[in-house]
Write a structure and sequence with these properties.
The structure is a homotetramer of 416-residue chains. Chain A is α/β, with parallel strands linked by helices and 416 residues long. Chain A is built from 17 helices and 13 strands. In chain A, helix 4 packs antiparallel against helix 17 and helix 5 runs parallel beside helix 6.
Chain lengths: 416, 416, 416, 416
């Protein structure tokens, strides 16, 4: 078994290596290939990975390479954690929209769109190489925006993939904690798009407890309590960008405000410094602040389900195929799936509640247009996408925003 | 044959009487009942109607009454032109949202929602009376917002109805005129919701001429030319409220700006003065500036199709029933229909183009929530509706807007 | 305008020439090309056509040719009336199944399947030539089995086509006559597949009169009266093959029984003798017994709707596209359509009544398998199709039947 | 926890008691209520159950009662194993159709229809009593025809239920055994209706192995090997009644042939004699020949999934809700489900393969008509159902069959 990390020079890599160490008995990887375009980071991360595995006494060969064909040769599981354009591009994604009074965010809004336009060609390139070089391997994707990536992969490649985001599991855990209900007693319906998902029903001991869940969340959530009560369903925290955009934009435009990208950039620099220390042979404490620990847990659960054909319930980004009404069959959605050796199969969630349906559909249209724009390399489709985005207030702003965004991404989006 | 005008004290009534006179040979109405709550207007309009019919030498009995049961007794066609709350309520619909930086408009946005909340109970009340008193009669509705009325009628009564708006025919005529193509050579696809419709395909002599239509419209339309080119379909002029809201709000907030309601209020006062003149026995010239002349033409075409079982193509507001993909079967849409003695049957238009799909779906969700709010008398659903409306920028604004709007409509929306 | 008759050596040709003469003012064809593989028949029919047109004083050039490219060059309307394998193949289609206790019929059952397998390659060949040689021309198809042809054309070519059968109009006329209701007062819903259609609703003067229609048909129909009452809808007469197969097979196996093909073969020989008479310059009386007079009427109505962009209601075989529930979008169905310059657009008929739904779906599956078998040239798919046919009683009979049928069609179905 | 067995006087009861004993630690039932209309059998089975539980040293109170309200009071899980009309009615279901040349079978064909008509009112009566008396309890149904029962329950009651049949698990196990593949390495798609299901895809170690599965099944199955190869999917053994009806009817009409009901009647008499022996405190060996051992295994797996909220994959009869294309949302189907505390949720299987689609749809229409006939007590709908059944060869036979079948069931189907 050969596991590949696409973007293996990432600061997340030690999380995956740690997960691998913990589950090696059940998931006996013999080779770990780190694939990246940054040789220095590769060296750092390959070194740390080797030290971690050695300390655990596990016979896993670690290679760090910039040669995609070499990395993919014989691969079984390919994990994608790439960030096209790096942290600098992310910070531009966060900063440029704010100048237009629109939310600046890594995955939501115009910033997310730029991230998608930069990333789709690279991820589809990987998937097409996998079709040729390791057609039986699974692509496990956590690269954001994960829902748009899932739609691009599902529509434009034959590579089997699982689209993952640690958000839904985390939000559901938080709801149940607020309700003081242990997870094993609850069944929770989740639906929507990635970073646009909602808890729509909660059952405890088989009885409907949605009202209690809404009330518990109203008291503990980032969004206005009465908003949650009005909706009657629980929005994931990213929905704050939609329901509270003016306030969040104002906050983000305060002098001295640092974007998340700016915070993380600093943290990553420190992490990489620590990783390079030849005395370090385990995850440093700082990594837990980076976020994303849940990814490793979730990724291994999925890989174990695939590998051992163990039916496992997992929220995932998949092509809709009838799971949600009134969305196309080939649009990606985020719903509970049953994962086994055949990969994720969506459970039917039915109608999207009317109070949130229009927003889900509108953002879906934007996402599908973004995939199409990236695949065709079309500025006109990109403009259609931005105009379709609910956070963009007018045609005039869409035009102005797109000009600035594409200018800031000229290196990565050559057709613009 | 007995024709009823619900809201017969309206300034439109002479248009319908004029239409009746022109088509009497083909559509031999023997009684015309004007039904209204305003006795003075009834007297004025009944008088003018009698003079017009007398001058034409037609044996049509005219009654003006405030007694609904009397008016509906024996009715064959009931035309609804009511305006619940009158012109004063309309002006508040236009003014209140502007104070919140949101478009103020009779049918689009929060103003349209208030009009719907005022009107649905009255129109459903009429339809239920028709179920009892004249179950074979057709309700021909032009009361706005026509699409929301169609959904309320289709979901909550069994009265057969036709939902009409003279917009689509007018916009299509304008497109063809801009193309210099005579209508008989063209087939035009139209789809969307009422006041949210689009020309999506144009064929001339059986060949696709959509690009030429887009180009012709770009040069002659109220919306930005490049917007139309980017969309690749032609939005109806009401779409300006969505694509250009900030600019239109700014214009409407200029000192001295009069809303359409304010302009029409003055015109109506003058019209009613003229109607009361015992020497007048025809439509006055001023009426043509009031707008809505097309309604009479269209309404009689439809009534003739119903009466004579003449298959006629007519754009109408109907329950979707599969005409448009990814919208519920019982949601109203605006599409070409074949009308015969069985009423309108939608032609399948298929997928809503992706560039406009999200907007259509989002406004549809708002409309369906509005119907539900009116039928259940629920402030919470009204808040869901306003929050779902693409022109409302945030939860905070939705709450503030609803407070002010319901305050201004306390007389008409008692549950608020 | 150039009109082509594919199979122009057919005995039907004078019907079309007669229709052309009657409508020439409204439908000014300048050239009529008869295309056939039988030179002698071409000569006969071209001669008669010229004499008929000359007598009418119309300047229409008539050409008879075996050269498809020459015939299609410049064509506007191409009418297909071909019969691949001729009357001898039809008679084998009728005779072979009877030996297995299964109905022998030109369009229904195993015989119809053989006709489809012989015809699909030829008709698709024509349609593909039309794509190249006259891409704007319409293909008007009456070649049977018309529903299967429509599915083959709709799935496998881009040539615009109209699938026609004179059955539905005739059966509806018969129902209304039995009800003593003039057609202009009725609206009739028709749905199903070709030669598997049903009158499902009748309205007279806008009121539901389905029960009266069922009662009237029960008294005047080829099927058992109580069967029609039990179904509550009116099956077309071909449904007798499904509901009364054992009796009809027994009748057809009586000594001395002649199949319809055997009767028509004799009639056609006589017709061709008469056509060859240089003194004949009009349709002979005998032709009216041949059947199919309605085709000319219907075909010209459709060609006029196409040519003049006149919206016309016409039952037609079209891809389903959501017109009937629970059948695939790309399966052909038979429903009322609105025909204009863009061709036929199906009216949505909704759910197939449960009493007939399973039969319609089962025959549809057989039809789709037949199209696939013909296109792929696959004996296995042909066996799947026959096994799926409701009239074939078992696997064992399906195998035996297919062997005999393909043996009898070796010349026309080379892959078998 | 109180477990009820509806039809607790059944010879199956010791299987369920045995299952209960084996899983008591994980599924701590405190009361077992046997509910039946036969007091003598109740006494026998309650006695044996008490002896079995006593021998196992388990503190489970056993009650035998004919009082439904008493049995349901406080119930948690209600298992239905009733047989309305008893074995005598079953034998008539098997014998009457044979006289008409149609298969006689407990669940398939006209016999199954009679069983459904007898059983639906009783099972719906139970479910409605459960709505009132124990609204949180689950109904676990194995009473045949299980798919028709599921549709009746799903359409006409609010009682939560799980529809079970041990067939699919058994057939899948047989396929994998024929392939020599251990179950944990395989993922198997199953779809259709109850006793009309098919293995449509098999993956082994994540790779498609459907062709090997078909080949393995072809060699080991009750149906013709080439039939299975031709279909490309593996029919469950009940499909022999459809594909090989003439042969099976002939076999069943041989002199001396005993129906399955006749064989089981004898076995049951012997079982009941053994059960009555006060010295017996365990399942007798003979019970394993009765069949249905798998039911206990499956039923407890499902009850454990419900009770402990343990996600479990289980093929079940559920309302379709989009799991299979081209079947109504409220029609029951048989597909893999994920069962947790919320009950079974179908996994989407998508399109039914074309080679079997028509048969599945046709039988589904028959089943839905049967449910409607039973609920409305309508002979006309029963006739529609029988006419819609693919095994009934004509209208004439449908009428004759129905007369004889209803005559034989006069006691149980009073409306007939």
């Amino acid at each position: 078994m050969k596991m590949v990390i696409f973007g293996g020079g990432s600061s997340y890599t030690p999380e995956l290596v740690d997960g691998l160490i913990q589950r090696h008995a059940d998931f006996p990887v013999s080779e770990l290939a780190l694939l990246d375009i940054n040789e220095q980071r590769l060296e750092t991360l390959a070194g740390l990975s080797r030290r971690m595995l050695a300390r655990a006494g596990l016979p896993v060969a670690v290679t760090g390479t910039t040669d995609r064909a070499r990395a993919l040769d014989g691969a079984t599981y390919v994990n994608s954690v790439i960030r096209v354009g790096g942290m600098e591009a992310r910070i531009r994604d966060e900063r440029v929209p704010l100048q237009h009074g629109v939310i600046g965010q890594e995955t939501t809004g115009p910033g997310g769109m730029m991230k998608a336009l930069r990333t789709i060609p690279v991820l589809l390139g990987l998937a097409r190489d996998m079709e040729r070089l390791c057609p039986d391997a699974w692509l496990i994707n956590y690269t954001n925006p994960s829902g748009i990536m899932a739609e691009a992969l599902g529509k434009h490649t034959r590579t089997p993939f699982v689209g993952l985001c640690n958000g839904p599991d985390g939000w559901i855990a938080a709801v149940l904690q607020a309700m003081q209900v242990p997870p094993e007693r609850a069944v929770v319906d989740w639906l929507g798009l990635n970073h646009l998902g909602y808890v729509t029903r909660v059952w405890v001991d088989g009885h409907d407890a949605t009202e209690q869940a809404v009330e518990a969340a109203a008291e503990h959530w980032r969004l206005a309590p009465d908003l949650i009560r009005t909706l009657g369903v629980i929005p994931c925290s990213y929905l704050a960008y939609y329901y509270h955009q003016p306030r969040l934009v104002e906050e983000a435009r305060q002098p001295g405000h640092r974007t998340r990208g700016e915070v993380v950039r600093e943290m990553e620099a420190e992490l990489l410094r620590q990783y390079a220390d030849p005395g370090l042979a385990s995850k440093p404490d700082l990594l837990s602040q980076r976020g994303g620990g849940g990814y490793s847990e979730m990724a291994f659960n999925v890989m174990l389900a695939l590998h051992h054909n163990r039916p496992t319930r997992q929220i995932s980004q998949v092509l809709n195929q009838g799971a949600l009404d009134d969305l196309p069959a080939d649009a990606s959605v985020e719903v509970p799936c049953l994962v086994d050796a055949r990969g994720p199969r969506p459970l039917r969630m039915g109608a999207v509640p009317l109070a949130i349906r229009g927003l889900v559909q509108a953002v879906k249209a934007y996402e599908s247009l973004t995939v199409q724009a990236a695949v065709e390399g079309s500025r006109r489709l990109a403009l259609q996408a931005l105009l379709a985005h609910p956070l963009v207030p007018s045609w005039e702003e869409a035009v102005a925003l797109l000009d600035d965004l594409l200018e800031a991404n000229r290196q990565w989006i050559p057709w613009a």
